[in-house]
Specification:
CATH superfamily: Protein of unknown function DUF192
Number of domains: 1
Structural class: alpha+beta
Largest sheet: 7 strands, mixed
Helix content: 10-25%
CATH topology: Jelly Rolls
Strand order of the largest sheet: 5-4-6-3-2-1-7
CATH architecture: Sandwich
Strand content: 35-45%
Radius of gyration: 18 Å
């Protein structure tokens, strides 16, 4: 009876152990990911084009922009969740501040977190289901006057 409980406990803990091991192995930036152009059209009709890396797999999304020393002002990383879901990000092992733009499935900006704190473990949430999260260099959303309700277009979003 004891051995059956021990086996059951080991089976339950195995995924957690694998996850912890995978988390511990992240020690360097991932290679640059394939890029796509996205366009943000602001409330005043201005367009801003970004050439962003596409984080589409779980592993790519886990590492994100960790250990990068810079993010180009016309670049960034788009986390495509595939389907709308709550997005919860953090800045663990991220060396530079970022602006995070949370994007609804229809391409509208749901929320923005500006100038996130490098290496912080605080959760940065979308406050509702989103199709994607866009990480940009800190200060870009203010400089380009990107606001909630602005429109994002690209391969995974409808045209404006």
């Amino acid at each position: 009876m004891k051995s059956a409980r021990l086996v059951a406990l080991c089976l339950l803990l195995a995924p957690l152990t694998a996850w912890a091991q995978a988390e511990a192995d992240i020690t360097k930036a991932q290679p640059e990911l394939p890029k796509q152009k996205i366009t943000i059209t602001t409330h005043d009709g201005k367009t801003h084009v970004f050439n962003v890396e596409m984080a589409t797999t779980s592993e790519q999304q886990t590492i994100g922009l960790m250990f990068r020393h810079s993010v180009p002002v016309d670049g960034g990383m788009l986390f495509d969740w595939g389907v709308p879901r709550e997005s919860q990000m953090w800045m663990r092992n991220t060396l530079v501040p970022l602006d995070m733009v949370f994007i609804n499935a229809d391409g509208s900006v749901r929320s923005i977190a500006e100038n996130t704190v490098p290496q912080s473990l605080a959760v940065i949430a979308s406050h509702g289901p989103v199709r994607a999260t866009l990480e940009l260099a800190a200060g870009v959303t203010e400089k380009d006057d990107i606001r909630v309700g602005d429109r994002v277009s690209g391969a995974i979003f409808p045209k404006n």
